[in-house]
Design goal:
about 190 residues; alpha+beta; eight-stranded mixed β-sheet; 6 helices
Amino acid sequence: MTDTTPTDEMTVETHGHREALALAGTICDLYEAVFSLPPFDGNAAEFANQRSYFPKLVDRPGFRLTTARSGPEFIGFGYGYLLPAGTLWWNTLAEPVDEEFAAETGTRTFAVIDYGVLPDRRGAGAGHRIHDELLSGSGAERATLAVQPKAVRTREIYRRWGWRKVSHKLMDPPIPAPVFDIMVLEEMPRAR
């Protein structure tokens, strides 16, 4: 199922399971193009890891993939899934959250796993459109994501969109980064 929302020459679409699998190569190429540059400076091991886990995520309950195209060219993407009851997402945070905050039902929280827009296409609204479409259709009450602290500009954009940091997590192994800030959005966007 594809939900298409065109504006000017940009098209934002949410893809179903089958379409997401068919787009795996394109999404992984976009991931590499976005995360190979500063401040992320991803490497071959990180990109191979992402190519390995993306097809597995598609099978998770509540998985969503949203893309942006300019004409036929894919310029951005975002994907994630609903956190299941009993998830480990909130465990091992440096600043623990309380039990009520961490309680998951399988529909309470949408986790944004990866999200990005090609550098030469930023500033035209694609990122915000992907963000809002991805989250507004998730059916969740709130959202969470992990962002590298060195991604200062990215974290500032998230703050402007209503996200707040609730903790940070030390990664073991430290791939793709040794530390991630854990952020939460408690007021979900509405569909445009």
